[in-house]
Amino acid sequence: MGLPLDGLILGIESSCDETAAALLEADGTVRASVVRSQIDLHTVFGGVVPEIAGRSHVEHMVPVLEECFERARAQKSDVRAIAVTCQPGLIGSLLVGVSTAKALALALDVPLVPVDHVAAHIYSCFHGVAEPQLPAACLVASGGHSSLFAVESLTRHTKLGETIDDAAGEAFDKVAAIVGLGYPGGPLIDRMAEGGDRKRFRFPRSLLARDSLDFSFSGIKTSVLYHCRGQNLRDRRTLDEQEVRDVCASFQDAVVDVLTTKLARLAERIGARSLAVGGGVAANRRLRERVTELAAEKGLGLHLAPRELTTDNAVMVAGLGRLLFAEGVRAGLDLDAHARALAPAPAP
Ligand code: KG4
Ligand code: ZN
């Protein structure tokens, strides 16, 4: 076991297109959280451009940190540990956060705590929860991941399913591009679906084998593409606004159906006491509604990540870092960034 934290923990997140920093107190209270999104830079390209993301992190990392300390009314000397996302993500982006964290750890002479980005999304479901109901069946659905986990404790989990092609958020982004809504697609589809008829079009629900906990979203996306452009992909008809709304609502319903069906399957398989959902797609209103209904139907507890912690942020990094710190997890100044999660966060 490590020593209890006797000051602030700084969290740094830069795995994709958000530069983020957060300062948490020893008991987990958030003193400040700053997220600088790069969406405006990537919108014109219809997706995140890794090279641009990395450069933008370099530009914004120090101002984001300064703003975080200012908002927290804290000094750098108040920091007792630094938690940083080191995997998985865009390598150039991750390296900016990891290098910054290492430089600060060296300058302030405080320990470095390595954090896995997906584990931080899992943690986000339980942030501030006094008594998590465990084991939990947890879905992490974002732009880069769609995975199912058995959560044994806030720092221990086992992956039992993942996408074999597109991530759920990626499917939202691609379908939004197909129907001409822009980027990022998730929030736009969520909004358009509100006035749409989710039963008008029946897009496929790919459940794979009967006992499978894996996901596949490329079929749903292709089906929307054929619907809009015809089987030969040459149709250039313009969808009127109501049809766009109906396509969005029908597509969203198909994705949410698959996500909740598999989550229910996982909960049953592991004898879960609760359901948990995190990651960018967890901001989706229809998904939140369906998971809430599912938990009530099955008599299970519910841990939905707070909306502000669904998309990338550093509160979840500092929060998980704080628990790992207490367990004695540390990294040296030779900490490396990994685009893919090679291994769970280094053991104490
Ligand atoms: O967790 P996140 O910020 O980044 C990754 O780790 O990937 O997730 C971003 C993803 C994007 O694909 C975005 O379209 C999706 O989350 N997203 C949503 C919603 N808000 C964000 N998807 C569906 N409905 C939403 N309301
Ligand atoms: Zn993420």
Bound molecules: 5'-O-[(R)-(carboxyoxy)(hydroxy)phosphoryl]adenosine, zinc ion
* Poorly predicted regions: none
Which radius of gyration do the C-alpha atoms yield? 20 Å
Give the integer mean of the pLDDT values. 94
Our count of domains comes out at: 2
Structural class: alpha/beta
Q: Could you give a short account of the major beta sheet?
A: 5 strands, mixed
Query: Cα distance, first to last residue?
Result: 8 Å
CATH top level class name of the largest domain = Alpha Beta
Separate helix tally: 10
Under CATH, the homologous superfamily of the largest domain reads ATPase, nucleotide binding domain
User: How does CATH name the architecture of the largest domain?
Assistant: 2-Layer Sandwich
Strand order of the largest sheet: 3-2-1-4-5
| Total E-strand runs | 10
What percent of the residues sit in helical stretches (DSSP H or I)? 40-55%
Strand content: 15-25%
Shape: globular
Structural key phrases:
348 residues; alpha/beta; Nucleotidyltransferase, domain 5; 2 domains; 5-stranded mixed sheet; binds zinc ion
Topology:
Layout: E1 8-13, E2 18-24, E3 30-37, H1 39-42, H2 50-72, E4 79-87, H3 91-108, E5 112-116, H4 117-124, E6 136-141, E7 146-153, E8 156-162, H5 168-178, H6 185-193, H7 218-229, H8 241-270, E9 274-278, H9 285-298, E10 301-304, H10 315-326
Parallel strand pairs: 1-4, 4-5, 6-9, 9-10
Antiparallel strand pairs: 1-2, 2-3, 6-7, 7-8
Helix pairs in contact: 2-3, 4-10, 5-6, 5-7, 5-8, 6-8, 8-9
5'-O-[(R)-(carboxyoxy)(hydroxy)phosphoryl]adenosine binds next to helix 5 and helix 6.
